[in-house]
Amino acid sequence: MMNIRSDYNQIITSVINLLDKSRAELIKENRAKLMKICSTVLLCARQMIALRGHEENGESRNRGNLIELLHWAASTDSLVDKILNDSDSNATYLSPTIQNEILKILADQIRRKISNEIKNRPFVLMADESKDISSKEQLSVVLRYVDAENQIHEHFMGFTKLDQFDAKALYEKLYELLMKHDISIQDCIGQCYDGASVMSGRHAGVQTLMRQNYMPRGVYIHCFAHRLNLVICDVCIVVSYVDEFMGILSKIHQYFTSSSVNNEHFRHAQLSLQLSVSANNSSLFFEAVSMDYASAKVLIQSIINQIQYSVIFTTTIGQKDWGNQKSFHSNENKFRDELFYSLIDSILIELNNRFSDDNILLFSSVSAVHPSNQQFLEIEFLKPLASHLLVDFKLLENELNIVKHFIREKIASMKTIQDLLTELKPVNEAFPATISLLRGALCLPVSSTTCERSFSRMKLIKTYCRNSMGDECLSDLTLLAVERDFDIDLEETADIFSKSHKNGRILLS
């Protein structure tokens, strides 16, 4: 009797083990199928191509990029062939709803990585808005920070659709997005927007409401690229000749571009005349992620100095010809007197007006950490910045006495704050207050052009042919296209997906 019971228990144990093994193998295969689908969804998202087709039934000759890619891969990949042919028609995990869910999981995985990188670091909030192809207002949100290797990062967090456009609605949307992704809003040391009154208003603008309610250290920074554009607009208003010239130039451009024949003649004329273009791309420097506030102020001052020098130079050259009455009344002198000087004066006035900061003490303090500044690392000038970044001032003062001695032979070769940080990298732990101060200064941006770059991707993703796309789907697709440098863990994706489908027909865990 005991032998029969023992044999029975062994049989039961063997059956259970066999079932467990079979179940484990089934789960492993199902997860492999899911990860294959996820990797194909990710491929489509990063290449900014549509996932779905107009008709996705078996009779359609074009069922969308996702399914067509899987059919193409099925000829050489047995696992993909099983996804398409061995699964029940209602359990393939290829439906539009599942595709959107996978996109959400993939995008949120990147957002979590960004959130974890920012934790306990000062960061700057950057935002801008634009209309998509459906005329919906989308607010782009970007976060800027400096990592432990002293590298500047600007990461796109996504779009949030705007239904109302007053300051209160905008700042609530920003707050909700930051809280949703576990961003410590108290660590925000700056806000960078364009100059729209709803964003920049001193009394009831978004920047003011954010500082009053959530981020007391969130100093407002007006995008430098936008400021330069405003300088040009203001100069056109003040100097009527420039406005007229721009109008004529616009009509010439319209004439040549409105006709393919005219455009072809124009191209041949350019080639025959061997025209070359000389351009000053100073504005492009402001669009670089690596550009910090202190370096931008140095660049602006150099532009102003260059313009002032050109006035002195042309005046001196002109005076040489004053003895010659004929030369004095020449067209060149008339141009110089009536247009050139007034234009230069207007540019200088607008540059000085547009680039004079309200928070003059703080931003002067930021400039004092730049190697080219006359007050470089002077402790008295660094007080406002140290206070803003919550750096221990007494500790900073003691450290700077040593730092100045440590770098005195290398100062001449330093061009940026990053050069200084690179020099101090081997001894970072010895100067914690100084490193915090420098990274904080490096974190302050000069423009919100990363937001503009997200709009460029948005226009490639949500097109005339894809104008019914949902807002969350647009945000996730754009993030996956913009933040391509982040690696995606497909095992983690499968884990998250399986938790929300515990009662699904396909075993995943």
TrEMBL record:
Residues 46-204 form the DUF4371 domain. InterPro entries: DUF4371, HATC_C_dom, RNaseH-like_sf. Residues 405-485 form the HAT C-terminal dimerisation domain. Coiled coil: none annotated. Signal peptide: none annotated. GO terms for molecular function: protein dimerization activity. SUPFAM superfamilies: Ribonuclease H-like. This is Zinc finger MYM-type protein 1-like.
